[in-house]
# Entry
Amino acid sequence: MKPLDIQELMLQIGTRARAASAAMARADTATKNAALLTIAAAIRREAAALKTANGEDLAAARTSGLEPALLDRLTLSDKAIETMAEGLEQIAKLPDPIGEISELRYRPSGIQVGRMRVPLGVIGIIYEARPNVTIDAAGLCIKSGNATILRGGSEAIHCNRALAKLIQEGLAAAGLPTDGVQVVDTTDRAAVGALITMPEYVDVIVPRGGKGLIERLIRESKVPMIKHLDGICHVYIDESANIEKAIRIADNAKTNRYGTCNTMETLLIHRSVAAEVLPRLARIYKEKQVELRGDDAARTLVPMSAAVEEDWRTEYLAPILSVRIVDDLDAAIAHINTYGSKHTDAIVTEDYSRSLRFLREVDSASVMVNASTRFADGFEFGLGAEIGISNDKLHARGPVGLEGLTSQKYVVFGHGEVRS
Amino acid sequence: MKPLDIQELMLQIGTRARAASAAMARADTATKNAALLTIAAAIRREAAALKTANGEDLAAARTSGLEPALLDRLTLSDKAIETMAEGLEQIAKLPDPIGEISELRYRPSGIQVGRMRVPLGVIGIIYEARPNVTIDAAGLCIKSGNATILRGGSEAIHCNRALAKLIQEGLAAAGLPTDGVQVVDTTDRAAVGALITMPEYVDVIVPRGGKGLIERLIRESKVPMIKHLDGICHVYIDESANIEKAIRIADNAKTNRYGTCNTMETLLIHRSVAAEVLPRLARIYKEKQVELRGDDAARTLVPMSAAVEEDWRTEYLAPILSVRIVDDLDAAIAHINTYGSKHTDAIVTEDYSRSLRFLREVDSASVMVNASTRFADGFEFGLGAEIGISNDKLHARGPVGLEGLTSQKYVVFGHGEVRS
# Structure
C-alpha cells in the first residue's frame, strides 16, 4: 500500500475502535468473560489451523534469514497454544476492575464523592514476533473494557490473522462489537507511525519489544505510552547484610534468567563486607560462566576485567555483571539513581533505618529489601496478569496489570445540592 | 537575553531543580510544614513590601494597556495577601501523602508487596498574571516533596520576585535546599519554550491559564502535563427528574459563576419534561440576564435565538447558555460524549438505572447525579487543595490535589526470598 493508503487505513481502524469503545466500556463482567472463554475454546479447537498459519510465518522467516532467537519466539508450539488458552481462562477469573467505586464519602455540602474505575478507551499494542502477545493483550484489554488495536510484527502476520478471526468469533458470540479488538492486517511499517500519531483515536500505546522499537516510539509518539526502555537493575549488599541472604539474592538476581528486564546488571557491595562476599559470589558466577567487570576495589579482591563508565549504563541481557565497591548507603543510592533505569533495585541489609531509606530514596518503579529483583513481575506482585512494565512515574508505574489499563473518574451522588 | 542564553539559564534552573529534588523528597513532614509556616509568616511580615512590588507591576501593566479583567487578577489586595498566608497554613495542616504505603500484602513466594507514595520529582508550573498562584503552587509542591520551577506571567514579575525571596527564606529556615522552589526571573517568553522541552529535568508541567496558553503548550510540550483545555459542562434533566431539584441545579450550575470551568454551558432536557421545566428556567435566566440559544424544539417552548453547531462546542465563560431538547438518555449521553470536553457533567433524575448508566457511560472526569456541576473542585471534593483540573485520563483525572503531584512505586519487603 502507498503511505497515504496506510494513513487512511489506520484512520478507519481508529474510527472503528473509538466507536466500539463505548460498547466495550459498557459491557458487564459476564459478557466480557463469555468472550474470553469463547476465544480460549476456539484457540484449542483451531490448534491445527493456527500451527499451519504459524508454519507459513516460519517458512517466510527462514527464507528471509531471521535469527534463531527470533525464530524461537515466533514458533507456536502445542504448549504455547495451550498456554494462550489458559491465559484467557485466567483473565476471565480475575476480578473485573471496571465500575468499582472507592472512597465514597459524604462532604460537608451533602454530596457524596467517590472515584469510579473506568476503561481508558482505546489501547494500541505494538509488539514484535511473539504471536502469543496477540491473545494476551486482547484478553487484558477485553477484560478491562477497552477497545484495542493490535499491531504485531510482520513476521507473525499469518498467525496473527488466524488469531484475529478467533478473537472476532469470541466477541461476536458474546454480543460485543467485533471492532472491539482489531488486528492491523498489513506488514507495512508505516502503520506503526500512523498508530502512534493519532491521539484522537488512541488513548494509550503499550509497546512490547526490543530497545530499538521502544526508542523509535519514544521519539515519534504523540500518544502517551506505558513502557520501559531499559532494565538496569541493581542489588546493593549493605555492610549489615545477612551474608547468606546476600549470596542467594545476588546469585538469583543475576543467574535465574539472563534475558529478562528485571535481571541484575550491576552488583554494588559495601566496602566492609566485600572481602567476605565477593570471592564467594565470584565462584558461583564463574561456575555459571558469568563474566565479571569490576572497579579497582573489586579487582583487588577477585581477578576480573575492568569496568568502564559505559558498563554502569549497560543492560547486558547476558551472562555479564558489573561490580562496584561503595563506601556507604549514600554512595549506593547515588550510583543507582545516576546509572539505573528506574526499573527495579534491591538492598540486602538487616539494618532497619537503612532499609527504609533505600525504599524511599531509590527512585525506581520497584524497590526491594532482601528479595531478588527477579520478583518484579505482574504475577509475582499479585496483579494476576501483566501487560507490561512502566519505568515512568505518571499513571502506571512498575508491573502493569488490568488496573493500568483503567483510569478513575470522580462520581458525585447528590440529592439536589447546589453550590453557595 | 538572547534565546541561547535563555536556553542555558533554563538548563541551569533544571539542573538545580533535579539536584534539589532528592532532598525535597527525603524531607519529613515536620520539615516541610516548618517551611510552609515560615513562608506564611514572612508573607504577613512583608505585606507592605509585597504591595510595593505589586504596585510596580500594576503601573507597568497600566502603561502597556492591560485590560481591566487582567489588572484585577494582577492586583494584590490586603485580603489576597492574607489569603495566601492562610492557604499555606491550610496546606501545612493537610496529611503528608509522601511515604504512605498501601495494600501491603504477602505473596505466595513469601515476599510482602505494597505501594509507596512518592513525589514525582520536579514540577514545572506555568501561569499567567495571578501572583497568588506562586504561593499556592509552591506550597503544594513543597508539601508533596517535589522540587518546583515556577514561571509566572511577565506582568507579575516584580511581585513574583518578592514572593520568591520569601519562599527561599522559608526553605532555608527549615533546612531545605533553596533550589527546591525556583522562580524563573525573566519575562522572556522563550523561557516557557525551554521549560516544556526538557523532560530530563522536569517530570510534569501544570499549566494554569487561558485557552491560548494551554493550546500552545499542548502543541509544543515534550513533558507530560496535568491540564484541561475546555470546560464544556452539561446538565441533563431526565424525564424522571424531580423538577424542583432540576430547576435549582440548572440555575446554580449556570449562574453561580460565569467564568469558571465547571459552569454549565449546555442544558439538555428530556422532551417529555421540557414544557414543564424550560419556561420556568427561562424566567430565572432572563432575570439574571443569561442569553439562551436553543435548538428548534427549545425555541417552540421559549423564544430564544437559534443555536448553531458551533454553540454545542463552545465554552462561553459568560452569561450565555445553549439549550437542546433530547429524546432519551442515550441521546443525552451521545451529545455529551460528542460535544463535551470530558470535564464535568450532571444528570438530574430519580431513576435508579439511568443514574447508574449516566455515571458509567459519560466519559468525563467528574460525573454527577442530582448535584450542580459547580461542585467539581478540589476543595468541594475533599482534596483540601487544588493545583488544577485534568480532563485527561492518564495519571490524575478531575480536580488534582496533593496526590496528583505524587506517584506510587512498588515496595517489596523480603526475607531472603529468591525466584525459582
Notes: Chain A touches chain B through 65 residues (CB under 8 Å).
